[in-house]
Specification:
The chain is mainly α. Helix content is 71%, strand content 0%.
Length: 58
C-alpha cells in the first residue's frame, strides 16, 4: 500500500512541478526519486528484525 501511495505522490508532484514551469525531465526525476525511496523503504522494512517471513510470531 505504501508503494502505491509513493507512486501516486510522485506522479502528482511531477504534474504540479511541470505545471509551474519546472523542466519536465527534472520534475520526472524528482518523482522517480520519491518512488525509488518508497520501494527502498519497503525492502528495508522487510529485513528489519522481527519482520521476516520465517520468523515465528509469539
Amino acid at each position: 500500500m505504501g508503494l502505491v501511495i509513493a507512486a501516486t505522490f510522485g506522479l502528482a508532484l511531477w504534474i504540479v512541478l511541470w505545471a509551474i514551469g519546472v523542466s519536465g525531465l527534472d520534475a520526472f526525476l524528482l518523482a522517480l526519486l520519491v518512488m525509488l525511496l518508497g520501494a527502498a523503504g519497503r525492502v528495508v522494512i522487510r529485513h528489519l528484525p522481527g519482520r521476516g517471513a520465517g520468523t515465528p510470531q509469539p
